[in-house]
Amino acid sequence: MKLVHIVFFNVSEGDNMLKKHILDSLKSKLEGLQSVISEIQKMEVGNNISSRGVAWDLALNTEFSGLESLEVYQNHSQHLQVLEWIKSQPLNVAVVDYWVS
């Protein structure tokens, strides 16, 4: 079984130029984690293409071998740096973790 960790991000304020800058920076920072955290088995980071009002701006989809691997990822110094940056931005965040066979 694999553990899937999905995080949704939504920019909560700012004009389109600021929103684009935040999302581009976020995407780059998240993608950079894959090369330094070996516990990440799979990673996809994508910007929303839907025009629906309930859509989130960006999604992170990652896979891990289990809870221990997810915890290593979550406590890795590079992830913590990205997390601090995220907290400093006007972002709403939602997380879903679930098992797949």
Features:
globular; Alpha-Beta Plaits; 101 residues; four-stranded antiparallel β-sheet; alpha+beta
Overview of the molecule:
Helix 1 runs antiparallel to helix 3 (77-87). By secondary structure, the protein is of the alpha+beta class. The N and C termini lie close together (4 Å). The protein has helices spanning 16-33, 67-75, 77-87; strands at residues 2-11, 42-47, 58-64, 91-100. A four-stranded antiparallel beta sheet has the order 2-3-1-4. 38% of the residues lie in helices and 33% in strands. It has one domain (2-95): Alpha-Beta Plaits.
Q: Structural class, judged by helices and strands?
A: alpha+beta
| Spans where pLDDT lies below 50 across 5 or more residues | none
What percent strand? 25-35%
Distance between the termini: 4 Å
CATH topology descriptor? Alpha-Beta Plaits
Which term fits the overall shape?
globular
Mean pLDDT: 97
Order of helices and strands: EHEEHHE
Could you estimate the helical fraction of the residues in percent?
Answer: 25-40%
Largest sheet: 4 strands, antiparallel
**Mind telling me the CATH class?**
Alpha Beta
Task: Please describe the topology of this protein.
Layout: E1 2-11, H1 16-33, E2 42-47, E3 58-64, H2 67-75, H3 77-87, E4 91-100
Antiparallel strand pairs: 1-3, 1-4, 2-3
Helix pairs in contact: 1-3
Short summary:
The chain is an alpha+beta fold.
